[in-house]
Structures are given as C-alpha cells and as structure tokens.
C-alpha cells in the first residue's frame, strides 16, 4: 500500500498537466470541419483550371496530409488519456481485470503513437513514464493480493529442504470462497486474470511451482516417512506434513503416486481449477486453466524426479522379479490418468509412463551401466603400466562354439575366423597365420583388460534376450566411443609431456583398431539373429582409432623436432668455427641433440614396434642433419680451419647418430638397425657428400659432380655446390674453371 501511495505521489508531481479530454474533443471537431472546407476547395479548384493549380494543389494536399496526421495523433492521445482514467477508476473499485485491460489499451495507443515516423512528441516520453508508473502500481496491488491468497510458512532455515525443514513447512490457501463472495465472483479469478492480462502470471506461477517442488513434491518422493495432512477451515485450506517410521528405505512407486495425487487433488480443488483467458497464446479458444499452466512449468522436473528417485530404484536386478513389475506399470497409468482429469497433464503417454513400461530395457541398461562404469575406470587408470604383446599373444578369450561342428574356435586362427566371416579366400594357405597379427610392442595393461571386458560383454550378449543383446552390443560400441573421447582429454598433459606415454597411447590405439577389425566376425555365429547381419561389426571405427594413435604420435614428433631445431639454433649458424667460443657453442648444440635422441631411443625402446621405432628415430635424426646442411650451405665464407672444424662436428653426427637406434633391449640385436640407418634417414647421403666437400680440393669436387651425373649431383643442386666452392676457395682462375664445370 505504502509503495503504491508513494508511486502515485511521485506521478502527480512529475506528469506535466495534460489538456483535458473536452478540449481535445473540441479541437478534433474544429479540425474535422477544417478538413471538409479544404476538401471542397481542392475539388473546385481542380475542376476550374488544372494546369495553373498544380503547385497550389500540391501544397493543399500536403496541408491535408499534415492535418489528417495531427488529427489521428490527437485521437490516439485522447484514447490513451481515457484508458488511463478508466484504469484508475477500475483499480479503486478493485475491478482488477477491467483495470488491467485499460492499461493494455493505453499501451497499444502509445505503441501506435511511437511507431509514427517523423512525428516526435516530447509528450510521448511523459506518457511512457506515466504508463510504467501505473503498471507498477497495479502490479503492487496484485502482488499484495497474491500474497494474501497463497501463504507459505517456512522454517527460518537457509532455504534447505531437509526432512526437518519440510516437517515445519506449511502452505495456506486463502482461496476458499466465503458465502457472500460466491455471488460477486471470487477474487481469485480476477487477481489471476489481471496478472495474465499484464503478462505477469507466468512469473508468479513459476515461483510458486518451484516452491511447490522444493518444499512439498520432491520431499514426498525423497523421504518415505513423510505423510501429507490436509485441513479445511471456513476461510482457508492448510497443507502440512507428519513423519511416520517407514517400513522400507525406499517407498514403492505406488505409495509415492498416491501421496502426490492427494496434493494435486487438494490444489485442484482450492486453486488450480481456475479458467483464464490467455492473450496471444496459440490455444484453440484462448482459454486455459491454471492447472494446465502450472503443469507446463513443473511437470518435466517432477516426472524426472519421480523417475530418478522412485522408478529407477524399483527396476529389478534379476530377471525373476521382472514378472511382478506389471503392478508398477498399472499404478503409473492410473496416476497419469488422474492428473490428466485435473488438466494438469496434456497429451498422451508421458516420459514417466514410457519409463515404467520400458522395464526390460532398463533391466538391460543397469547391466550396461556397470559395463560402461568398469570401462571408464580402466580408461582413467595410468597409461604407463604396460604389458608386452607379441604376434602370438591373444586376449584371454572364453571359447566360442564353432558354427559348423562341435569344434572350438580359438583366437589363434584368425584366417579361419575371417574365412568363416565375409572374406572369401580362394584357399586358406594364401594367408599366413600372422596376416592379422600385431607386431611386438608394449600396450597399457588397462587396455588389455578393456579388451577382455569387451569380449566378456559380447559373450554375455550372445546368451541374453534379444533386447538385452542389442543393448549390450551397443554398450560395447559405446566403450570404444568413450575411449576415443575420454582418453585423449583425460591424459592430455601426460601425452604431450612424456614421449614414452605418447608411444604407448599410439600402440593402444593400434591394438584396439586391430581388434575392431575382427571383433564382429568372431561373434557372428553365436549371437541371436538380431546381430548376425552386417550391423554387428565394428570395422567402421577402425580408421578413427588409427587416426587417434597417429595424431598423438605426430604431435609428439612435432615437439621433438622443435626441440632439436631450438638446440641447433644456439650453434651460431656454424659460422667462424675458428673462433673458440663459436666452436664450443656449435659442439655443445650437437652434443645436446645427440643426447636428446639417445634419451628418446631409450624411452621408446621395446615400446614401439621396431619399424615404427626406426621411422620415428630416423625422421628426427634427419631433421638434425637437414638443419646442419642448410646452415653450412648458407655460409658465405669458410676458412680452412673452419672447414676442418665443421668436418669434425659432422663426423660426430655420422659416428654417434646411428648409435641412438636401439629398438630392442638386447644390445647385439640392434647392430642390424644401426647399419640400416641410411634407409631411415633421408638426408644421410647428402650429409656424407657435404663432409666430402669440406675435405676435398677443387678437382675432387669437380670429379664428384661428374657433369651432373656424380654422387654429389644426386644430393645438391648446381647453385648449392657453386655457393660452397665460393665459400671454401679463394677467387683464382682454377676456381673459376671449376665453377664453370658445375652446371
């Protein structure tokens, strides 16, 4: 009340005095006759002499348009004024609906005025303020009425809804119509309808719905001991709780549904059964009950809560109890029907009922959730605990029955396995037994366990009901998708930081890709018909896993390459090696690069398959050699001493470079790979040729070039060789002659 008075006072001081409606009417009449005179004037003149009168006609036409505009603006101002006056009268008489409608009328007049281009009135801002003041004032009144109708008595807790707090909460509805009011139309309707007209009902109802969920509905679902109590007095209705010792930890869905139905029946009787006109909504006749509006706001949250805290727990864990579940489904149907009768629910089967009816699949889901949880645990465990796998090793697989005979199918015969699948081979002998085997490497033990989990789950699927079988099969697909999403993110930092982990992750991905190739085939003859078609394969996931492994590996290679280039950048460009300090810097850079490569060679030893190891180490050694070649070829002047020192630095690389190749733990077996270094290092021969040039005389260089057919020409362009000759030898006729031969 006080707030409203204050607003009124403010408004009276603020608004510039407006012309009274009578004056406006008089002006309007004056203008109307003015317009009639103009109109006849125009018609006479036009008939008399068109040519002469064109200019005058245009002017008169503009005058007419101006006056018409002014007239319509004045009419709208008059409408606005009338609406505001009628609003105030209605509000004084507590005719809330009429008051709200007049405000909306004033609002539409104002909108109309504001939309006119080129007609800016200072008065419009004043009118806008006036409208806002009146609207807020009205909302004040309605807010007070609303708070009288619906009273929450909550304990002074910090907004918790613990059992203790809920027991001390009450809802009072002062909406019980008394005898005299029934004739005049209950105030509830007019308050609610006025709020609806002003577009405020939704907000009020939302808050009410949240309170209802928090202090009444959700506690009833969560605390089995709560019992709702209702009390009706002549002037109000009260809803409160009492607590009884529950017989079980969790109430059955039937008990919960009954309690919630009781609450809604009471609310329906005393509050929600109010029909309202909803402006602008796409309802058929524009009428809607409060129950329907509240339902739209809270049903989703309520049904989720019922599913999560009530139905989920009632899903049986073993198939013997599945039979008894029909009574739960029946009571869910009845619950929904009751809510529909109260118009709280629209439409057909809701999620709640679908959930109850779908008990078989939830039964399967429970099983699937356990599988996924186990898989997730394995994925988030350490990568660095590894196991060695060899071409002979296979997953500890349960034995699968062979489709044709009583024979047992083993992992060891992949060709046979595939042969019985879809691959049509002319004869089995063409494929070696290792065609589908992995090279020796190390993988995380958690990944090996993950594959065992996958095989066990698929085996379980083969003996389940059709629906359960399909769900378990898709759980296995989900395991692989999860691996793809979880592992790179969860272990992101380690995979960037530790080259060894990146290598293991690479192997893990290749190992999984390898199993995905044949996984579907192995189970084709054991599953029910549902999975024996093409759908039950995992081949489509293979490229993604190979890519995942490769991307991680490439990222690690980029890091290592950058580190090598970073170290070589401190070698002072390999120029002026006769300066001690420069020579020391270059020598140190080369030693650091070799040390880095040696360390990598050790952490990747026995982890990567040998061929991957050699390619990776070869690529990195190549990066170092290529960089050194580029730097030396770019030098403009190389003294004899420089050349000797550069040669000695290069020799270190050539002698010690191959020694970083140690793919196997057994020393003697690595010799072979160290001798094959030129195969893996693209620039190896280029580097050797550069060393020859650094030690050669002019004639030897010309011989090595051999008219562009010699070994030197295979590694360097003519321009590079000439540049080196100019840097190494002084400008003499012999040098000129040599340069002439390089083309």
UniProtKB/TrEMBL annotation:
Domain called ZW10 C-terminal helical: residue spans: 588-742
Chain ranges of the Centromere/kinetochore protein zw10 N-terminal domain: 2-84
All residue ranges annotated as the Centromere/kinetochore protein zw10 C-terminal domain in the record: 436-566
Gene3D superfamilies in the cross-refs: 1.10.357.150
InterPro entries with a match to the protein in the record: Zw10/DSL1_C_sf, ZW10_C, ZW10_C_2, Zw10_middle, Zw10_N
Disulfide bond in keyword set: no
UniProt GO BP: cell division; endoplasmic reticulum to Golgi vesicle-mediated transport; mitotic spindle assembly checkpoint signaling; protein transport
Membrane topology recorded in Swiss-Prot or TrEMBL: Peripheral membrane protein
GO CC field: endoplasmic reticulum membrane; nucleus; RZZ complex; spindle
UniProt keyword list: Acetylation, Cell cycle, Cell division, Centromere, Chromosome, Coiled coil, Cytoplasm, Cytoskeleton, Endoplasmic reticulum, ER-Golgi transport, Kinetochore, Membrane, Mitosis, Phosphoprotein, Protein transport, Transport
Keyword Cytoplasm: yes
Sequence ranges assigned to domain Centromere/kinetochore protein zw10 middle in this UniProt record: 142-379
UniProt feature coiled coil, ranges: 21-67
Subcellular location: Chromosome, Centromere, Kinetochore; Cytoplasm, Cytoskeleton, Spindle; Endoplasmic reticulum membrane
Family: Belongs to the ZW10 family.
Oligomeric form and interacting partners: Interacts with NBAS and KNTC1/ROD; the interactions are mutually exclusive and indicative for its association in two different vesicle tethering complexes. Component of the RZZ complex composed of KNTC1/ROD, ZW10 and ZWILCH. Component of the NRZ complex composed of NBAS, ZW10 and RINT1/TIP20L; NRZ associates with SNAREs STX18, USE1L, BNIP1/SEC20L and SEC22B (the assembly has been described as syntaxin 18 complex). Interacts directly with RINT1/TIP20L bound to BNIP1/SEC20L. Interacts with C19orf25 and ZWINT. Interacts with ZFYVE1.
Protein known as: Centromere/kinetochore protein zw10 homolog
